[in-house]
Amino acid sequence: MDYQTLKINHQSAVQRIQIYRPEANNSIDPHLIQELLSALQAVEAEETIKVVILEGLPDLFCTGMDFQEVAYGKQVDPKESLDGYYNILKQMSQSSKVILSRVRGRVQAGGVGLVAASDLVIADETVTFVLSELLFSLLPACVLPFLIRRVGFQKAYRLSLTTQTISVSEAYNWGLVDEYSEDTNKLVNQYIRRLRYLPSSEVKELKDFMNKLWIIREETQDLAVNTARSLMLKPTFREKIKLFKQEGVYPWQS
Questions:
Q1: Cβ–Cβ < 8 Å for 15, 40
Q2: Which pTM value belongs to this model?
């Protein structure tokens, strides 16, 4: 497949998937959703691949949903995109491959979900995390089931409620980041040397068992997607997004 929003690189036992939309701050649009889900599903058939490394740009991992279409009234119903995004997080959590996110720079909104759904997260010292949805009259509904599993109820609630940015050291203390260092390549390679020997079937068994211990079910997806959809269809949300896209004005500045 000829990817337009991703860069794919095969190595021994490893597949690197780089989110590559520098012109749009590595935001998530319908095209990226389709390609990333397809890439994650396709790697399941690759028996020699044991580890998938998900990464962004050197100074920017992912800024969440691209609301360009919403701002200009081109997107009538966001349900398909929301379902697709949630399916990406679900695929990561159910994959027979170890999903290791190498994170650098800013991580916002839906980007936090990608990190939370990863099996392992290696970050550099420049990383910051923020959930800004509430400022736009939205909820991080699709992110929260995976974020709560990662860091616990209160920390996920606090990040959503305060919309404050947290540093990589705080994210490490919370459990959102597993390890961080100035040299992320060194840390990633250390993990690969061990993970490449794990049978994918047994990784899948472990994930299936862990998922049975948690609340992520079909009804969780329905709740998350329908909640986010109903809020995105409200005029208040669309007005705030339009003002931000057209004039660069944040809701608290208007």
A1: no
A2: 0.93
Write out pLDDT tens, residues 21-59.
999 999 999 999 999 999 999 999 999 999 999 999 999
pLDDT band with cut points at 50, 70 and 90 for residue 116? very high
The pLDDT value given to residue 33: 96
Write out the E strands in 85-200.
98-103, 106-108, 120-123, 128-130, 166-167, 179-180
Q: Give yes or no for a contact between 5 and 31, defined as CB atoms under 8 angstroms apart.
A: yes
Inter-CA distances, 21 with 27, 157, 164, 241, Å = 7, 29, 25, 20
pLDDT averaged over every residue in the chain: 91
Taking residues 95-118, report their average pLDDT. Answer: 97
| Residue 202 annotated among the catalytic residues of the structure | no
Residue 133 bears catalytic tag: yes
40 alpha-carbon distance from chain centroid:
13
- C-alpha distances (whole Å) from 140 to each of 50, 64, 220 are 31, 10, 13
Residue among 29, 66, 83, 119 flagged as catalytic: 66
Q: Which two tokens stand for residue 32?
A: 């990226």
Query: Helix, strand, coil shares of the chain as percentages rounded to 5?
Result: 50, 15, 30
The pairing of beta strand 6-11 with beta strand 51-55: unpaired
